[in-house]
């Protein structure tokens, strides 16, 4: 029983698992879709064999743009087919987010995505946390940031035509965004987690803003 009540053991850890080479299930999709066979070691010398199909999502940067001077946040509205199929509410409220290109850092991707999706670059970034949103389905690893911006320059619409994106921007008060969160009106996981962070750390925004501006780049939140 003592081993089950070990606070020091509350952490993800590696496992000596035998993983096969991938077999492609789809060659012309939006993301690679692959099948793996794997053997997991179990206590007592036993093993467990599994077959898993994985959507390869790769690294992603997400940004919650905050206008500290005006006490406002910038959110997006974008259609997602998965949400449409799951809930009927496909026109989702989101934060800035996008894939990290090869050779690009998460912070550089965060700045680039802000320019592409809301039309302004952040003056400074605060790195928050990294999460695997759906590890049972995809290897997508998302690193989230707060980006301090001047919301007066935010474009009405954003997105790249080459990626068939159509994005509407919303510049709203922090109170309104948190009310929507509390009311369950937002289901996008990246948006929910970013706004939960904001609700917990709102009193620290002045400290983080000043530190990030002074650093002239990225600080850890």
The top-level CATH class of the largest domain is Alpha Beta
Overall geometry comes to globular
| Backbone CA Rg | 20 Å
Helix and strand run: EEEEEEHEEHEEEEHHHE
Task: Classify the helix fraction into a percent range.
Answer: 10-25%
Q: How far apart are the termini?
A: 36 Å
By DSSP (H or I, 4+ residues per run), the number of helices equals 5
Please indicate the percent range of residues in DSSP E strands (runs of 2 or more): 25-35%
Largest sheet: 9 strands, mixed
Describe the structure.
The protein is of the alpha+beta class and 221 residues long. The radius of gyration is 20 Å and the shape is globular. It is built from five helices and 13 strands. Helices cover 24% and strands 35% of the residues. The protein has helices at 81-87, 106-118, 174-182, 189-201, 205-215, and strands at 18-19, 23-26, 33-41, 47-55, 59-67, 72-79, 91-94, 96-99, 124-131, 141-148, 157-158, 167-173, 218-220. Strands 5, 6, 7, 8, 9, 10, 11, 12 and 13 form a nine-stranded mixed beta sheet that branches. Strands 1, 2, 3 and 4 form a four-stranded antiparallel beta sheet that branches. It folds into two domains: 2-55, no CATH class; 59-220, Nucleoside Triphosphate Pyrophosphohydrolase, CATH 3.90.79.
Question: Layout of helices and strands, plus pairs?
Answer:
Blueprint: E1 18-19, E2 23-26, E3 33-41, E4 47-55, E5 59-67, E6 72-79, H1 81-87, E7 91-94, E8 96-99, H2 106-118, E9 124-131, E10 141-148, E11 157-158, E12 167-173, H3 174-182, H4 189-201, H5 205-215, E13 218-220
Parallel strand pairs: 5-10, 9-13
Antiparallel strand pairs: 1-3, 2-3, 3-4, 5-6, 5-8, 6-7, 6-12, 9-10, 11-12
